[in-house]
Amino acid sequence: MEVVILKNSDQVAQYAAELVGTLLKSRSDAVLGFATGSTPLALYQRLVADYQAGKISFKTVTSFNLDEYLGVAPDNPQSYRSYMNRELFDQVDIDKQNTFVPACRDNENPHDVGLGYEQQMRGAGGVDLQVLGIGANGHIGFNEPSSSLRSRTRVKTLTRQTLQDNSRLFARDEFQPKLAMTMGIASIMDARKILLLATGAGKAGAVADMIEGPLTAMCPASILQMHEHATILLDEQAASGLQNRDYYDWANVQNESLQDRFGLLADPIGS
Ligand code: PGA
């Protein structure tokens, strides 16, 4: 795991946008995995700005989103499809035909939708770079604590904590879904590179469990300890529970000097 601790959430977004930009410049037909939630919003704003400045293009990009609510129509503003259209897709040159969200319509069997989504990801050659957030309970996607570490795209019941955390986004009398389709933990682990963003003190406990705790289904994000190319981008607050902080900062100084001498030491995606 590469743990990069930056001063604030702006710097996290900037660092993440630079990594995505570098990938798009070397591979214009990259397959990107996107996340929703509050954390990646600043990243998407920077990607839109970089697109508008002519620095990057999404014309031949394919994307797969982590998750989507069940029982929420794609054109409902609360759907993750709407979120992606609003925050990124409608503002850049991506071909929407090449953007995928694991949506399950009312008359569809979630099991079949999950299998189909896995097939679509495989058919696209797999995800090159997966953007992730982390829940205060350690979830990635909607893989809640106790999710199988070998799970694939399927329907999950959201925990009470997740419902509580997300209730701020729903009006008092609005339907708040309790079920969602989500890429599984094994599906996420298939990505060639992982970029997890966490900001704010509310994530400090989950971040410490992910990086320094045991590998356990009770903290689904801890599986990233097993990923060969996972970069964890944190602001100071999200990093505040880490015991081994000095080492991460020290290692980053060394990594920067190694990169100056040899360039990228390991590029899982290639060019
Ligand atoms: P957030 O959600 O970015 O809104 O905090 C992250 C997550 O639940 O994965």
Summarize the model shown.
This protein is of the alpha/beta class and 271 residues long. Helix content is 34%, strand content 15%. Residues 37-39, 133-135 line the site of 2-phosphoglycolic acid.
Number of helices: 8
Task: Count structural domains.
Answer: 1
Using only CA atoms, what is the Rg? 18 Å
Which CATH architecture is right?
3-Layer(aba) Sandwich
Contiguous uncertain segments of 5+ residues: none
Shape: globular
CATH uppermost class = Alpha Beta
- Examine the coordinates and then state which fold CATH places here, giving the name of the CATH topology: Rossmann fold
Task: Label the structural class.
Answer: alpha/beta
Overall average residue pLDDT: 96
Small-molecule binders? 2-phosphoglycolic acid
Number of E-type strands: 10
Helix proportion: 25-40%
Bin the strand percentage: 15-25%
Order of helices and strands: EHEHEEHEHEEHEHEHEH
Largest sheet: 7 strands, parallel
N-C termini distance: 22 Å
Strand line-up in the sheet with most strands: 1-10-9-6-2-3-5
Search tags:
271 residues, alpha/beta, Rossmann fold, seven-stranded parallel sheet, binds 2-phosphoglycolic acid
List the helices and strands and how they pair.
Blueprint: E1 2-6, H1 9-26, E2 31-34, H2 41-52, E3 62-65, E4 67-69, H3 80-87, E5 99-100, H4 110-123, E6 129-132, E7 154-157, H5 160-166, E8 179-182, H6 185-189, E9 193-198, H7 204-212, E10 230-235, H8 245-262
Parallel strand pairs: 1-10, 2-3, 2-6, 3-5, 6-9, 9-10
Antiparallel strand pairs: 4-8, 7-8
Helix pairs in contact: 1-2
Bound molecules: 2-phosphoglycolic acid.
2-phosphoglycolic acid binds next to loops.
